[in-house]
Amino acid sequence: MKFTETFRSALDGLNANRTRAFLSMLGIIIGIAAVIIIISVTQGSQRSISERIEALGTNLINVSPGIRGGFAGMRARALADLFTLEDGEEILKKASAVKRVVPVINRRLLLQYKDKNAEIVVNGITPDYQEVLNFWVEEGRFIDYRDLKSFRTVIVLGEGVANDLFGDEDPLGQSIVVNGPLSRYKFRVIGVMQSKGRVMFFNFDDQAFIPISTAQKRLFHTKYVQNFSIQAESKETTDEAIEEIDAILYQKFQDDTKYSISSQEQLLSTMSSVMQTFAIMLVGIAGISLLVGGIGIMNIMLVSVTERTREIGIRMAVGAKRVDILLQFLWESVLLCLIGGAVGVSLGWIGSKIIAFIGSRVLPDMGALPTVISPEAILLALGFATAVGLFFGIYPANKASKLDPVEALRYG
Amino acid sequence: MIQAINIKKVYTVGKVEIAALKGISLEIKEGEFVSITGSSGSGKSTLMHILGCLDRPTSGKLFLDDKEVGKLKGNALAEIRNKKIGFVFQQFNLLSRSTAFRNVELPLVYAGVNRRERAERARIALEKVEMAHRLYHRPSELSGGEGQRIAIARALVTKPSLILADEPTGNLDSKTGEGILELFQKLHLQGHTLIVITHERYVSEYAERIIHLKDGLIEQDERRN
Ligand SMILES: Nc1ncnc2c1ncn2[C@@H]1O[C@H](COP(=O)(O)OP(=O)(O)OP(=O)(O)O)[C@@H](O)[C@H]1O
Ligand SMILES: [Mg+2]
After folding, report:
1. Distance from the alpha carbon of residue A252 to the mean position of ligand 2, in angstroms
2. What residue ranges in B45-110 does DSSP mark as E strands?
3. Is A11 on the interface with B (CB under 8 A)?
4. Which of A2, A16, A317 minimises the CB distance to B54?
5. What are A55-112's pLDDT values in tens digits?
6. I want to staple A155 with a disulfide (CB 3.0 to 4.6 A). Which of A85, A166, A187, B97 is the partner?
7. Which helix or strand (DSSP H or E) is residue A242 part of?
8. Distances from the Cα of B174 to the Cα of A40, B6, B144, B188, angstroms
9. Which of residues 176-215 of B touch A (CB under 8 A)?
10. How many helices (H) and strands (E) does chain A have?
């Protein structure tokens, strides 16, 4: 018998008992929807993270004090007095694969303008910051070497901060108050950065930049810097640069736990492997629901075979071969799973949109939680559904095809 | 066209062996209208299942159109049922969820006939049983007599060598039953080979030959005119 005819018989079979068909699909629907949601959320966030980190430049290297143990280890690290401006100059001079070095001090400070205020990260940096981070000023100008030399109280605002403090007003040339730990200073706004958005939990637009000399001398009264953002000559020489920097720092500190060097690329691969592990775990859990759904389908198919014993007998009497009966019932279970899978994919798609929406409401600081539904994910889900249908359908279908025609006709 | 030589059928239920047919030999010629009678349990249905290739004899030889079919299995038997045999049952045995048309075309579906030809042949078969006006009714929307006519159309649609009917009037009142038997008569006059199983006297009156079974053996084989 032709393929289309077995298919049609199967459709007739499902059509005859729609409520039951739907109920038996539920497990598959839920399982597939869960798989789609998980894949779309993890793929989406993975993609946006890597896009944004890549936008920072893949030849970026971070040098910071080593992680200290204990509960406040991260904070202790930020406050460690370890590097000086001279260390940065030495790295730039001695490491041939290094192109630029930017020393950075950053602290969370309160900024005020008239009755508005914002508590944000203020970075003390040098003019090279723009090139190294691939993060550029949009209006006005950036910090330059004269600002640095003269310890000027000038500030460049991130786009978000500028909006918060000034709204529609033009921030350029205005004075704002920066509250340091010991003293408050008036700073003149000389520029506003381009918008860069968020990477993970950090919003690039909610920060401000001042000359590092001003930060050291006037705000924090320190000769140390917190860390270095370093640009390698090229993407290919990044590893070489890391080795050179390590050699220089080791010579100075004689202890490689005191400092840590990481490239953007390492960060990227760590993050994506963490995401992947997470996704595989969740998909595994969803797989259990698919398994349960498959067992449900098998159960329903077995009931259906018993119920339709006489139908099977009739078909055999008029000339159906065993394989025709087998295919008819196999088709039925595959169709059940495929339809369930398709419904699951649509529900998963809607679900992931809802999650993205709720995510952006509940956690506005994370930005819109992006979701991606890739064709691969859909194919994977439908393929899986088909496999479940085949696997759990073969036993009932085989049972149907093995019935004895005479007994089947006498049944019921 | 049918030749059965010493057909035996033994059912084994647990440890008990039941001999349903104890050695049946008979020959039926093309175009004959034969009635098989006998009391309940005499082996009529068992014989019909074997003649119709739904079941296989425990021993003995069966020739259909000069071809030995007694030893065939599964797919080969299915093909013979499909091409050469048309069944009519007491309980009609129509697919309850399908229309009359779909029921009638079903054997052609399994024969691999294309859609156009199926429609044409199903229509002709339905016309023969005077049911062309009930194409899209389901069995539940038909009377018993109409249902049995659909079943007969299904048996006719493949132009089989042999039509086998097991108590075709058993579920019908006598007037409707007579209508069905007149239909068989008509088919007989058109040249079809018919075997009708019954235990009702008036049913066998329509046949030109009556084979009477008793306890799995042929007790009497009587020709009439
Ligand atoms: N599948 C089976 N297993 C065991 N015994 C069976 C089976 N089918 C039939 N028999 C036995 O074989 C004998 C003949 O049965 P069969 O159905 O052929 O009788 P019948 O002449 O058609 O009777 P009825 O007029 O009641 O339909 C009976 O004794 C019956 O119990
Ligand atoms: Mg019987």
Report:
1. 104
2. 59-64, 67-68, 85-88
3. no
4. A317
5. 776 688 999 888 765 555 555 555 678 899 999 999 999 999 999 999 999 899 999 9
6. A187
7. helix A238-253
8. 69, 35, 12, 20
9. none
10. 14, 14
Q: Are B123 and B130 in contact (CB under 8 A)?
A: no
- Of A309, A338, A331, A310, give the one whose Cα is nearest residue A399: A309
Query: CA A183, A186, A189, A195 torsion: positive or negative?
Result: positive
Question: Radius of gyration of chain A from Cα atoms?
Answer: 32
Is B9 in a helix, a strand, or coil? strand
ipTM strictly over 0.90?
yes
Rg (CA), chain B: 17
Cα–Cα–Cα angle for A246, A126, A194, rounded to 5 degrees: 110
Compare all CA atoms of chain A with the CA of B106 and give the residue at the minimum distance.
A318
User: Which residues have C-beta within 8 Å of that of residue B3, sequence separation ≥ 6?
Assistant: B26, B27, B61, B62, B63
Strand A83-84 relative to strand A60-65, pairing: unpaired
DSSP notation for A6-53: HHHHHHHHHHHTHHHHHHHHHHHHHHHHHHHHHHHHHHHHHHHHHHHH
**Strands A184-193 and A175-179, bridge-based pairing:** antiparallel
Residue where the block lists tokens 């020709």? B223
Instruction: Decide: B169 and B203 in contact? Cβ < 8 Å.
Output: yes
Query: How far is the centre of ligand 2, averaged over its atoms, from the C-alpha of B45 (Å)?
Result: 4
pLDDT digits (tens, 9 = 90+) for A132-184: 988 899 999 999 999 999 999 999 999 999 999 999 999 999 999 999 888 88
A337 and A172 Cβ atoms separated by less than 8 Å? no
Say how far apart CA A159 and CA A208 lie, in whole Å: 9
Domain ranges of chain B: 2-223
The fold for domain B2-223 equals Rossmann fold (3.40.50)
